[in-house]
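[step 3/7] fold_predict: job queued, chain A
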Amino acid sequence: MDLRSAERAKWLRKLSQRQYSTRLDYASLTPKSGPTLEFSFSPGLSILAGGNGAGKTATLGAIARCLGATSDFTPREPEWLRRIGVRGTTGGTEWNLALDFVTEATDVGAAAPKVFYIDPSADTERLLERISTDDAPDDLIEGLDPYPLAERELELLSFLLNRRYASVSVYEVTAYSDQDEPDPYILANCMGVSYPLNRMGRGEFSAIYLVWRLSRMPAGSVVLLEEPESHLAYASQEPLIDVIIKYAIDGDLAIVMSTHSPAMIDRVPEGSVHLISALPTPTVHATKSRAEVSKHLGLKRVRTISLITEDPTAAHMLRALIDARAPDVSPRCVILHSINGESGVRRVAEELAKSPELRFHPLLAVLDGDQRDGAAHHEAILPGTTSPEILIEEMLRRWWMGDLQDWSPRLMGGVDRVKRQLDYADGRDHHDWLQVMSEPFGGNAPFIAAIVDLLLLDAELSRQLDEMLSRIRSHLQSR
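[step 4/7] structure written:
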């Protein structure tokens, strides 16, 4: 899945143009004193943005309660709010719901949609607390059949967390739940290691939990999503909003999300972001641009560059090299790849450069090392004089033969496992060689990331990397 640059523009248009089973149209918030606040929802996805204490969570909770969410974990409404009304359409039938928080009077319209409130951070925290106090947590799944995430969900998680999962199984446990909604007990298998949810990092657990919840949403549902970026690294927040957009479109969902992440605010259609503030008086700014919202929140807009490589292996190597040598630049780099090699890179770069959406967005073709002699001045070259697959194989063979002994593999099983795998992969075609070599270590992306230090022990490769990074930095300032 690739939701970036020109391809992302197509998905954003589809987000706005899709015919949804449920469509949220309009909300009105009547304070205990002062004028009523109004705003319109956007098709598929709407964002409630604001700083800490602005009332994002409380407003999301008020919408949830108005639509009928009754969970004990649904947030309370803002202290200043007297009444809320939400209007929409489900299955072609209009509905208009209202809730008065002072009198607790409700107006319930026909065809009200199913509504789900999801707070990945709080939900996973509660589950971890329950498991930590359970004397025998492994007994929870005894006799239960696992619900394996489909290949589609595994691909989304790999895209989101930059690691390849062999499997993720979810056991739907009801031991902790007083309601019908089960809790997920999650077992993941990555890089040959199986581990449960209480051995995951919080970001990984939250991401898997969110994908599991969204994959189970009935079509036509309203999903109210509280700060899904919590616990995720900045580099995962851009792909996260792409995953959420994907579920809104493919799952036929109406999603309302709170966030103060600039990475997420910058990647949704204009008009989708509503800025909420509580002081000096409650306000909803429904007409501000993404740039104005970012400025109001004190967020510096980050200038990015699209780097286009010849194939996925080159893209993995480019990302690993930038992460290792220029971590300050890494969050600003969107890395794409062609499916037609060097000619495809140049054609894609030329087409993207003509795109109105990317007119002022810097682009740079990054070719394999075997194109070094024929590269143009506006192109960058990966280190080496061969393709990435051949370069990786050559450098590992040098190490295997006793050269570059300062390198210690940061891979599961260490030196012995890497050498055994080198022996097993010996003699294969270089494309097959990399696939075979990387398979026990989680696939190409984590394998390449782990051996970048080996490449940089070579002085000439290190110099060529600095030259490539200089070209990237220059292009970041070019438009």
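[step 5/7] annotate
The chain is about 40% helix and 20% strand.
The longest strand covers residues 22-31.
exit 0
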